[in-house]
Backbone:
């Protein structure tokens, strides 16, 4: 996925916001139709029937008919794909889209180009004997930094290729999605990037992910994801307090929350940029990359309430505030995005190693004892006396992998102990 910042004019921005409203309206209508379906009843309308109903609705309603039909039909197609993904890929039921939260639409390129097979031969239609013509997004490069893409109803809309003027290749994609969030427009082109070639050195590394140190690599390096500065955190708290004191549904409350969203979006952009650069570095430097297998969704689940057995309807303290702070700290590190982008750039060269005992096992001797972990940063083996940074020791255990002859703890061991496979 190639994502670029867009800079539309005022007229183009108004038209694209109208496209977002039409796409959201059509999507929600499809969700409503399928929500009425019950077992034993007639099947909900499919994509073809919904397109026919859309044509009738465009004739009856002027607001909907004034919109672009390509955008609206594509919203129905996206819904059909999301509905199928529920059964094929295990995703949940398509849900409602809300204003100011789900602002976006997808475009199929209107430029016709001939399609070719993997061996370079042209693809031919069996029935007609003519070459198959595919669709492509119409993109033009203006200069080293800027390009433009054709959006239905808006004409040519400019987007930035590179912020530092280094230049970038034009995206070659059939479809692209335009989104509007936190006052910024972006165009994401559906491009499958070429995998990063392996260096061929045979080097294997392990990566231990944590909160204090985002990624500790087994070669001794420690990488940290950039966080919001102290000044930015103070500004976020200031605007949150002002929003809490503002009257409900007032323009002042909306403005303060918009400022908070802008500051948090800046932090998210830094995190995404760091994950992209770090994953590229890992894919180019190492042949095999091993991550600690973490269930991030379970780790960041909120604390469950504890009912008070003595007072019905009351609850005991469950450290909810502390758990919420830990969840925010974990999500701010970008663990999942780093793992995902590394797999995209180095397919087949990324492995997951089970997490149990990686932080308690001594990497040289294999002794497992919870007392060896003196603190968050200090590891002193109670068996051989090996001293090391705790995150570096865990990274070495991850680099060894699960197929190696790694000692395991004895079930009858007390303070510690090891057994082999």
Residues:
């Amino acid at each position: 996925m190639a994502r670029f910042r867009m800079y539309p004019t005022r007229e183009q921005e108004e038209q694209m916001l109208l496209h977002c409203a039409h796409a959201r309206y059509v999507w929600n209508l499809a969700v409503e139709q399928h929500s009425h379906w019950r077992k034993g009843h007639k099947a909900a309308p499919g994509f073809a029937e919904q397109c026919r109903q859309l044509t009738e609705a465009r004739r009856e309603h002027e607001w909907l008919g004034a919109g672009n039909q390509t955008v609206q039909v594509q919203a129905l197609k996206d819904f059909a794909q999301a509905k199928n993904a529920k059964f094929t890929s295990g995703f949940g039921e398509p849900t409602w889209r809300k204003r100011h939260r789900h602002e976006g639409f997808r475009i199929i390129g209107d430029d016709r180009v001939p399609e070719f097979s993997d061996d370079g031969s042209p693809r031919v239609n069996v029935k007609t004997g003519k070459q198959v013509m595919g669709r492509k997004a119409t993109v033009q490069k203006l200069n080293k930094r800027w390009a433009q893409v054709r959006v239905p109803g808006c004409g040519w809309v400019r987007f930035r290729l590179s912020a530092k003027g280094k230049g970038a290749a034009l995206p070659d994609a059939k479809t692209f999605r335009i989104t509007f969030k936190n006052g910024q427009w972006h165009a994401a082109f559906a491009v499958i990037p070429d995998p990063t070639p392996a260096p061929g050195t045979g080097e294997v590394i392990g990566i231990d992910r944590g909160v204090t140190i985002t990624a500790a690599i087994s070669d001794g390096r420690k990488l940290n994801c950039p966080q919001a500065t102290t000044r930015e955190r103070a500004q976020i708290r200031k605007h949150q307090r002002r929003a809490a004191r503002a009257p409900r549904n007032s323009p002042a409350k909306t403005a303060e929350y918009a400022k908070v969203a802008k500051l948090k979006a800046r932090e998210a952009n830094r995190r995404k940029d760091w994950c992209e650069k770090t994953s590229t570095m890992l894919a180019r430097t190492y042949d095999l990359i091993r991550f600690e297998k973490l269930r991030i969704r379970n780790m960041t689940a909120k604390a469950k309430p504890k009912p008070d057995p003595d007072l019905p309807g009351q609850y005991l303290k469950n450290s909810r505030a502390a758990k919420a702070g830990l969840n925010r700290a974990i999500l701010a590190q970008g663990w999942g995005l780093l793992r995902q982008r590394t797999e995209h750039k180095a397919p087949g060269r990324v492995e997951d190693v089970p997490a149990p005992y990686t932080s308690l096992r001594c990497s040289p001797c294999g002794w497992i004892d919870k007392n060896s972990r003196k603190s968050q940063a200090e590891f002193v083996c109670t068996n051989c006396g090996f001293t090391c940074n705790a995150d570096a020791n865990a990274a070495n255990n991850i680099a060894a992998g699960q197929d190696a002859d790694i000692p395991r703890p004895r079930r009858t061991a007390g303070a510690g102990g090891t057994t082999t496979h």
